[in-house]
Amino acid sequence: MPTLDDILEQIGEFDFFQKQALFFLCLLSVTFTPIYVGIFFLGFTPEHHCRSPGMAELSQRCGWSLEEQLNHTVPEWGGHEASFNSRCRRYEVDWNTTAISCTDPLGSLVANRSTVPLGPCRDGWVYDSPGTSLVTEFNLVCEDSWKLDLFQSCVNAGFFIGSMSIGYIADRFGRKLCLLVTVFLNSASGVLMAFAPSYTWTVIFRLIQGLVSKGGWLTGYVLIAEFVGSNYRRAACIIYQAAFSLGLIILTALAYALPHWRWLQLTVTLPNFFFLLYYWCLPESPRWLIAQKQNEKAIEVIKHIAKGNKKKLPLSFQNLNSEDEDGEKPKPSFVDLVRTPQIRKHTFILMYSWFTSSVLYQGLIMHMGIAAGNMYLDFLYSALVEFPAAIILMLTLDRIGRRYPWAAANVMAGAACLVTALVPDTLYWLKMTAACLGRMGITMCYEIICLVNPELYPTFLRNLGVLVCSSMCDLGGIITPFLVYRLAELWHELPLVIFAVIGLIDGGLVLLLPEMKGKTLPETIEDAENLHR
Asked: Model pTM?
C-alpha cells in the first residue's frame, strides 16, 4: 500500500494548498510573539524615584530642571546607575519649608547631608516614562519588584504545564480541534487581561494565555510539517519560524506607537479571533487520521488537498490499508517517550537542547537590557539578526543535513558568548559583533530543533513528543531571569560564561542524533527506532 509521502508526490508536496495552509499558520506564528516576549514592553521598568510632598512646588519655585531636582532632592541619585536608596527611599524632610535654599536645599535644613534620615516611599513613585506599563500602573518596584518576576514566571509555568496537556490532546483528539480550542482560549484570556482590574487578575489571565498559546503554536508547527512532503518540510518549518521573527518587528512598531500596555495588549490579541475561521480553511492532518486508522477521512482530506493543488488522485493511490482500519488505534503515552532505547536517547537530548536554546535566547536579550539604551532600537536590532539565520539554514540544511549545522550553530553561540564576556568594554564594536553572532547562532539552534523534533517521533506520538521536550524550554525561561540578574551582581559577564558552557555541551550532544535529511517521517515506534540505521 502507498504511504502518504508517495501520495503527496502525485498530488503535490508543496503546491497551492500547502502554500495556502502555510500562510494561514504563519499568521498564527506572528501573533504568538507578543505572548512569548511581550513582557519586554508590557513590563518595562522606567527610571523612577520616590514622590515627596512639596518637591514639585520647590522645583517650580527654584526653576530647576528635572536633573537638578533629582540631584538636590533624591538620595544618591545617579540616573540609570541609581542605587536602591534613590529609587526606594526618600529624605524625611519637609520640602514646603520656605527657608529652603535653592542652591543647597539640604544644607539649609541640616548641617551634615549624611545625617538626613531616609524613609520609605509613602506617597508613591514618579516614573520617567511617556506611557504606562504593568510596573507603572501597579507600582511593581522596590519591595514589590518580585511581582513582575512572578508575572513572567506564570507565563512560562503556563507554557510548561500546557506543553504536557495540549500535546496529549493534539495526539489523542486531533490537531485541528486542539488548534481551534487553544486559539479561542488564548483570544478570550488576552482580551480579559487588557481589562483586568487588578494585578492578581492580570496574572491569572496571563497564566491562562501561557497554558494554551505555546501549545497552539507548536500544534500549528506540527500541522504544517504533516501537510507537506519530506522534500519541502525544511523550508515550510523555517518559514513558520521566520514568521515569529517578523512578529518581533511588528511588536516593536506597535509598542512604539502604543506606549500604554492595555492598548498594546488589546491590539495584539484581537487578531487571534480571526483564526477561528480556520475551522473552514484547514482540514485535519491526514497523517494523524491514518495513524488513528480513520482511513476514509484521510482519503477525503487527501482528495481535498489534490483538488486544492488542481490535481487528480490516481485510482491506485486511493486505498490506505483499509483492512486494518478496525484494528487497535495507537494511543499516545508519556511512557512511549522513554520506553525504547533510541526514542529515549532522542527525548533526553532534545530536552536539553530546548533548555539550552531558551536559556541562551532569552538570556542574551535580558543581558542586553541590563545596559542603558533605547529599548525599541535594542529590541529591533536583536530581531533583525534572526533573518540572516533563517537564510543560512535555507541554504544549508538540505545540502549538509541537520546535525552539523546544528552543532556548528551551538558552538558559534557558545563561543560568541565567551568572547563577549572576555572582550573589554573599550572594544565596544567587537563586543557587540560577538553578541550579535551569539544571537544569530542560538536563533539557528531554535529553528533547527523545531524542525528536527517532529521528525524524530512517530505520527501518533509526534505532538506529545514535541511539546514534552519543548517544556524544558519553559523551564529554562523560568530560571533565566535569576541566572542573568543574580549572577550579574557578582560579575556582569558571568551569565555569558554560563551560557557559553551550556551551548558548547549542546553542540556535542546533537551529533548523537540521527540525520533526517531526505527521510520520511516515522509512522510507528519501529520506524523511529530504526532512524539511526
From this structure: 0.81
